[in-house]
Amino acid sequence: MALKKGKLTLKEFSETLGLSKSTVSRALGGYSDVSAKTRAKIETAARDLGYAPDPLARGLKRGRVESVGIVIVRGTPALYDPFLSEFLDGVSRSLNARNRDLLVSTAGSTQEAVDVYRRLIEARKVDGFILSRTETHDPRIEFLREAGVPFVAHGRTDAPDDYAWFDIDNEAAFFEAVKLAAQQGHRNIAHIAAPPHMNFARLRLKGFLRGITAAGIASAAAPVHTAPSLDIESGEEIARRLLQLPDPPTTIVCAVDLLAVGAYTAVKSFGLSVGRDVTIIGYDGLPFGGYIEPQLTTFDQSGGDHGAQVADMLLDVIEGADPATRQVMKQAKLLKRASDGPPALTSRDLARLVAGNAAS
User: Fold this and answer.
1) Which residues are CB-neighbours of 176 under 8 A, at least 6 positions away?
2) Left (φ > 0), alpha (ψ -120 to 50) or beta: where does 39 sit?
3) Helix, strand or coil, per DSSP, at residue 30
4) What is the pLDDT of residue 2?
5) What is the spatial distance between Cα 227 and Cα 220, in angstroms, rounded to a whole number?
């Protein structure tokens, strides 16, 4: 790339040098993990091209306040989501053990969250940020990378190269869910998906579709309906629509456990039995899944443990660790309980039973 002078962004400046944004940011921020030779190259180019780091980042580095921030985007997930509670509890436990505090704020959108980040950085209220529920193209990550502010994402975007993140192999879990149902004999398998702008939703759908293809199931027998929000009401509404299709699914794979609970209500409203007439599989492994009837088959991702590990990773980055070396992928664990099993009815038999019960 040809050298150019003038107002440069961090991305443009790093591309000019053929280096990653994190390397450039850390060199100019005074971190010791960048070699003297590379640091000198970057500093010389910065003087020649008139590049200056974002003043927000420079202000943040002037001193530690021993607090980290998390800005929750309202509705993604809902503030009462039990997974979020588990995750925040894990974050808090880790921070407390290392004498740090957690500052929690909210925003109406990811773009609004950027404004909250800017305000917190200018006020020097935090040393770094934890991001949750990442989007495929996430303006929060772009802003924090550009500003050179320490952060760790719980989840990834479609370009997870040079920042710190902790994620679960969502694609593998949903491939396994379909494989389980297909091996039990199900040939009509539906998916209640999360809103598609969320990156985990994209990966879970990808795993579901890959599983459908591997099982040799026709796409017409594998309907996908997207929930407007991740709550019980959405799960019930969509499951009712699925069960009233001419060829209803005998298995419903849900993006999260809350949607699965709603699907339970829909199945039972037609006089059907979960686990016998309709298999339901969730994801999150939340504790309540072991107490509903029948117990929910789901995938456990241990939100509290993840929160603690994400907090530890962020503190490492704040202390000078290279963010690109703090990238962790875990596997979700299948909790096979009582809401799955071989189909007792064909799809057509199920349709007749649903129609008869709905009319009565």
Assistant:
1) 207, 211, 299, 334
2) alpha
3) coil
4) 46
5) 19
